[in-house]
Amino acid sequence: AYGATFSSQSDKYLNIVSIKNIKKSYNKKSPTAYGSLFLPYELFHSLEIVPFLPEVIAGFTGGLGITDRTLKEASSKWYTPDLCTFHRCASGAVELDLFPIPPLLICATLACDAAQKTFYIDAKKYGIEDNFYLVDVPYEKNSKSISYLAEQFKMISKDISTKLQKNLDFARLENTIKLSNEFRYWALKVNDLRKELSVYPKNFNGLNFIFPFHGLAGTKDAVILYKNIYRELKKLLDKQKNKKIKTDRIKRLLWLHLKPYYKNEIFTLLEKNNYILAFEEINYVYWPELDSENPFESLALKTLSHPLNGSAQNRVDMIMEIVKDYRIDGVVMFSHWGCRHSNGSGRIIKDSLKKIDIPTLILDGDCLNKNNSSSGQITTRLQGFMEIINSRF
What we know:
four-stranded parallel sheet, Rossmann fold, alpha/beta
């Protein structure tokens, strides 16, 4: 059976649920909607819409080795080279008809301004401008902004239901909210385990879980996946506590933003030198438990609670909390080409961490375009960074 050769049960289930849900977006049994990363995908699942996240699936083009092709196509259509390569690869894939043709596109203004522009271009290509929904996410989180955003979610849900010729099913929405809370429960239990855990399954990388963490929130698949992650990591933590695994020489890193999705030696180098990713900011559970009796307000609060929304201080506060809880020895921020939002706060983050004596490496590179990253320079900078941390032990 598929997945039988995976050394990690977590990786096995991650691949199974990811492929299963990507297949759904191509089989046309249910309507597919393109969605930007930071939307509350509970809305999609409650409407029985299959979510397809172009910027996330663009990461698959890196793993499949076809980014040169998608980037070339995007360039031929005049997409500017200073645009984030996740969006350029996704746009190239759309132009090449590699992605499913959606009847709906939904995009939030949170964090990434490239998404709203590329999604609208996609809508024009498919001739569905009337089915392009832009969610205006307020900068601040307060009662007025929650009501404003909740009303948008409600109106969009009603409008889509009408277009799909169905009634808005509040019972299904309530069940989706309950599943989302169950997923959140297990994600928090996984995160709590990781505060102590120093040894991980072979090839486990928390940076791989961005799709289920966002796109599958509100599904049984997310619950099953995170329950299995918990069980696998709990066994390792029990062994660690029984001193069957030595952990005294392991250094703990926090990783900010994402990683290169093409073949690289970054994590092999870290592992050889007894470094682990103790945590990744993308796995931080930033929202409170959802209220099934007030679903739209709850989803609005979830969206507004994201650390990338509003002031850069929100992200700094999250990082400081993680550094303390996970006993972080050093922070790596992967400075992905074209990501103005993340990179713009790099100096603020580094200066804030310096005040509490935590070394920070801002590692310039590209998550998808290997030709825009220097592997030699990345290795040299990582080695120098590890020397700084090692000198403290």
